[in-house]
Amino acid sequence: MGFIVAEEGGKVVGLAGLEHYGSVGMVRSVVVHSDYRGMGYGEALLHATLDRAAQQRIETLVLLTTTAAAWFERWDFAQIPWSELPEAVQRSPLVQEGCPASAIVMGRVLRE
Question: Which of 3, 59, 77, 101 could form a disulfide with 72 if both were Cys (CB 3.0 to 4.6 A apart)?
């Protein structure tokens, strides 16, 4: 997994992760410190993640969220059924051990 870090004055204020599963990438942990929300850091982190995914020839991005579905919908992610997660993603440690069944699965096609 690779991380993109947002800094302000030498202080980490946010990060986003990207995991690879063949031609599918899983967006992980787009987070911004509460003192810096609403300042564009989340958007910048997501755009940097999308750019990195495109550079790495990822065709589809998926993510799991319990709180930010509406935010991701603004960036063309759409809810998809759990059953549409690629098998490799379903076997990932996040899905197997760390994600509640109530999480919303979302996806976005980058290249067809």
Answer: 77
